[in-house]
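RECORD TYPE: inverse folding
INPUT: structure tokens
STRUCTURE:
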């Protein structure tokens, strides 16, 4: 949870110029979803990003084999 909390804060400080992302503890979003939900969403997002990266690299290598290096 500590790792998620620090990543959460870092992301929001980089992504937003204001403090609108700071919700009060009574906010519906915070009360509906558990911290585990947000941890799972982070893991799923990072997993998908890595998988897409691997797929793009594999396609790139395949195209390079077919067409050669275009440099």
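DESIGNED SEQUENCE:
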């Amino acid at each position: 949870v500590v790792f998620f909390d620090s990543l959460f804060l870092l992301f929001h400080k980089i992504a937003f110029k204001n403090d609108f992302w700071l919700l009060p503890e009574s906010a519906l979003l915070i009360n509906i979803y558990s911290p585990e939900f947000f941890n799972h969403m982070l893991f799923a997002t990072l997993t998908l990003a890595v998988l897409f990266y691997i797929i793009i690299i594999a396609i790139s290598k395949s195209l390079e084999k077919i067409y050669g290096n275009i440099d």
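NOTES: The longest helix spans residues 35-67.
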